[in-house]
Design a protein that fits this description.
eight-stranded mixed β-sheet, two-stranded antiparallel ribbon, binds Isopentenyl phosphate
């Protein structure tokens, strides 16, 4: 058992899936990341992954985020959760085959939200498995909601919630760009990434990009930053790295200096 403060690793949907495809997992990337996680040999690691081309198109098709409005959506809720378990199975496959003691924790069976925000979280299994040295693996999921019937819980909300609950040391956010950019690097090739941001600067960036278009039902980069702000306020450091590139996850986890954006309170 370890006393080290936890590190939370978020694997974005755009890293582990091809967002232009349908149910298109990037199995080579997933395997390479599993190998890097094994090499990092972390005490007290928690992994959270996003939905990519598994969760988002299905959630969008059935309007799951806005809640239960008609009975025909119910099977869409089941399907959204189900495709997330399929993606999670592929992640677990890679972790287990790399001999990482890990346990999938299904958000929809231990979390309920109220108007989209986490209200109940039974963390008994999560905490026990961490005490035993397992790596818990959670993900954005379709969850039951006290007011809406059901909704979509983003991996980013989960990351920030877990970071605060577990008093994490740091959050490593794996995306498919070299950090957080002044403008969308996929649209503007000369856009530059921020190397370091403090809380006030992060809030200014958040205000600037909050109107941006996104296909993610959970809000893309703007949603990600909004979720991270309370964790940064609590003194938890955040590093946004390009997890599609070799060795970045390993180096992000072990604290080596790499390209990306570091966000700290002051
Ligand atoms: O990709 C959303 O998780 P995210 C999961 O972390 C679903 O926002 C079910 C769309």
């Amino acid at each position: 058992m370890s006393e080290a403060k936890p590190t939370i690793l978020k694997l974005g949907g755009s890293v582990i899936t091809d967002k232009d495809g349908e149910l298109a997992a990037k199995t080579e990337v997933i395997n390479r990341i599993a190998e890097e996680i094994k090499r990092a040999d972390m005490d007290n690691l928690v992994i959270v992954h996003g939905g990519g081309s598994f969760g988002h198109p299905t959630a969008q098709k059935y309007g799951i985020k806005d809640g239960l409005k008609e009975p025909s959506q119910k099977v869409g809720f089941s399907e959204t959760h189900h495709v997330m378990t399929v993606l999670n199975g592929l992640i677990m496959d890679a972790l287990v085959w790399h001999e990482i003691p890990s346990l999938s924790i299904t958000p929809s069976t231990c979390i309920m939200t109220e108007n989209g925000r986490i209200k109940y979280f039974d963390d008994t299994v999560l905490c026990s498995c961490m005490k035993m040295g397992f790596v818990p693996v959670l993900y954005g999921d379709a969850v039951l909601d006290e007011k809406l019937g059901f909704t979509v819980l983003s991996g980013d909300q989960l990351v920030a919630h877990l970071a605060l609950k577990l008093k994490a040391q740091k959050i490593v956010v794996g995306v498919d760009t070299d950090g957080l950019y002044e403008a969308d690097p996929k649209v503007n090739a000369s856009a530059k990434p921020y190397l370091r941001l403090n809380l006030e600067q992060l809030k200014r960036v958040q205000a600037k990009i909050s109107g941006a278009q996104t296909t993610d039902v959970t809000g893309g980069m703007a949603g990600k930053i909004a979720e991270l702000i309370p964790a940064v306020e609590a003194g938890i450091s955040v590093q946004i790295i390009n997890a599609t590139r070799n060795l970045r996850v390993l180096r992000g986890l072990t604290g080596e200096r790499i390209e990306g954006t570091i966000i700290e309170k002051a």
